[in-house]
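Form 7-S
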Amino acid sequence: MNKTLSKRKFAQWTFSTIAATGLGMTTLGVAAQSWPTKPVKVVVPAPAGSSLDVIVRGMSETLKTRWGHALVVENKPGAGGTIGMDAVAKAAPDGYTLGIGFNGPVAFGPFMFKKMPYDPAKDLMPVVLTSSQPNVLAVPANHPAQNFKEFVAWAKSQGDKVSYASVGLGSSSHLSMELLKGAAGFEATHVPFNGSPPAALSVAQNETQALLAVEPALLSLVQGGRLKLLAVTSPQRLSARPDLPTVAEAGYAGFDALAWNGLFAPAGTPTDVIARINADVNAAMADPAFKQNMLKQGLIIGGGTPAAFKSFIDAETRKWGAIITKANIKLD
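Output:
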């Protein structure tokens, strides 16, 4: 699988793909036919109301109907998502405990922490990609650059005087800017903040000169005329922001930096149970109401097979591991 993951590929990874690859309900084994016999718990390694929480709760009613049992959400935030995913990794591999993981505790963590309480590659089984979300490049509203090319030229002319904000050390916001700096060839000093509100405000006040973050988190400052957006880090333009060019369009072909998330099960969970969960979640994500809600959140719907999700994770781990190592980013 290519290292870049386009919106078109997301669209291709649908429930019909599952059926075509033999993962449909007709191929399920004995374990999946009897599963579930009780409620299924999904660990969310983020607070209630977060995008991960919204994704899981958004598909809960559809899954309850298909499974005949409730989907129970358990929020376990902390330590960059590793607390929640550790609970998943150490749960019984019977299909009754799942977790919605994301870049940090799955692909970034092994390179940032000296020691993790679990090994993402060995202790977690990928089930299905649920969504992705690109970052957008925000600068102060009065910044002289009117597009990404002009921003790069400006940044290069400033030498080492440019600083950029991020929503946190080791976040997708941070790493995406490190990737962007390397691709475009400019220098900038990292200033981490605790979340998007203070990071965005620092740019609006020109205390820092740039920020890569998800667009919904910046919307109020953009609408208030305090920030302007220059580019998006996805391979294609966002359907909700067709006027916003991609970094790739500005001359950096292949540039792709997405925050993503997906469902995981403990290693050792029966493969036919994994296939059953995968098929049902793909069906839940195909629900029009769910799609519309995700679009409002600025999310690109995922989907596809467990094998495709694993290949994507492997590629992302290699890609971002190199960035983290080069930048010497450590969280402990």
